[in-house]
Amino acid sequence: MTKLEGSALQSALAQVPAWTFDAERHAIRRTLRFADFKAAFGFMTRTALEAERQNHHPEWFNVYHQVEILFSTHDAGGLTELDIAFARWVDATALAMGAR
Predict the structure, then answer these.
(1) pTM score > 0.90 for this model?
(2) Is 1 part of any domain?
(3) DSSP collapsed to 3 states, the chain
């Protein structure tokens, strides 16, 4: 995987408008809010299984109904197409599970 830069980075970021670009870490992050802890943990469980399937693991943090996720590809030194694809999967899954 190649680190996204320049116009490729801007184009990729446009695909995930709900995510914030962290220039210092060359990563994207998003905070999701669910109805309660059970829903948040259910989302995390589904995401963990998908991460294992992809062999690509997010950094994340959970407090009660809130989940913060950060994607960056460590081997590439920053954001890659793999991160964008997984972020899009997260968006669709979170929406289906009632996140806001």
Answers:
(1) yes
(2) no
(3) CCCCCHHHHHHHHHCCCCCEEECCCCEEEEEEECCCHHHHHHHHHHHHHHHHHHCCCCEEEEECCEEEEEECEHHHCECCHHHHHHHHHHHHHHHHCCCC
Number of domains, the chain = 1
Q: Do 80 and 2 touch, CB atoms closer than 8 A?
A: yes
Question: Given the structure tokens 């009660």, which residue do they identify?
Answer: 64
Note the pLDDT tens digit of each residue in 37-79. 999 999 999 999 999 999 999 999 999 999 999 999 999 999 9
